[in-house]
Amino acid sequence: MSDAKLIEAAREAATHSWSPYSDYAVGAALRFDDGAVITGTNVENASYGLALCAETVAVAKALGEGRRGGLIEVAVVGPLDKGDGAPITPCGRCRQVLNEIAQLGGTDPRVLCVGSDEVREIRLSALLPHAFGPAHLD
Ligand code: THU
């Protein structure tokens, strides 16, 4: 699957966002080494602090379906008409959540951060250097 298709999957996921409080719809798409794509979108709550980010929802879906690694690419898309158009990067908590499934399979996924004029590709290890992960608990 091309980067453009993965980004399109993330964009499609964002159409299902439940984000009436922030009005900031985010979509994430995870691509695995067997070709599977699992998406997620942000899910907010009237109790604001309970919001779940798109990447976290996608990882929870993947782990909940039994995946324990094989994550090779991630695309993250936010609203292109907000902010300065800079590529959206996963929040700190999402970096840690992504690291869990990445480290389980020993991969360092490419993270495609989509902005209005550019797609910035950053390795998860660059987004979260010196990560704490499941291997520390062995
Ligand atoms: N959000 C994500 O879904 N992913 C991120 O990496 C950053 C922020 C969501 C959380 C909240 O619903 C909205 O964007 C505004 O922060």
UniProtKB/TrEMBL annotation:
Binding site for Zn(2+): C53, C91, C94
Any GO MF annotation of the entry: identical protein binding
One GO location term (cellular component): cytosol
Transmembrane segments: none
CDD domains (alphabetical): cytidine_deaminase
Domain of life: Bacteria
Annotated binding of substrate, by residue: N42, V43, E44, N45, A46, S47, Y48
GO biological process, one term: nucleobase-containing small molecule metabolic process
Keywords: Hydrolase, Metal-binding, Zinc
Active site positions: E55 (proton donor)
Enzyme class per UniProt: hydrolase
CMP/dCMP-type deaminase domain boundaries: 1-135
Cofactor annotation: Zn(2+)
EC id: 3.5.4.5
SUPFAM superfamilies the record matches: Cytidine deaminase-like
Keyword Metal-binding belongs to the record: yes
Catalytic activity: cytidine + H2O + H(+) = uridine + NH4(+); 2'-deoxycytidine + H2O + H(+) = 2'-deoxyuridine + NH4(+)
Entry similarity comment: Belongs to the cytidine and deoxycytidylate deaminase family.
Function: This enzyme scavenges exogenous and endogenous cytidine and 2'-deoxycytidine for UMP synthesis.
Name by which UniProt lists this protein: Cytidine deaminase
Native source species: Erythrobacter insulae
Lineage, highest ranks first: Bacteria, Pseudomonadati, Pseudomonadota, Alphaproteobacteria, Sphingomonadales
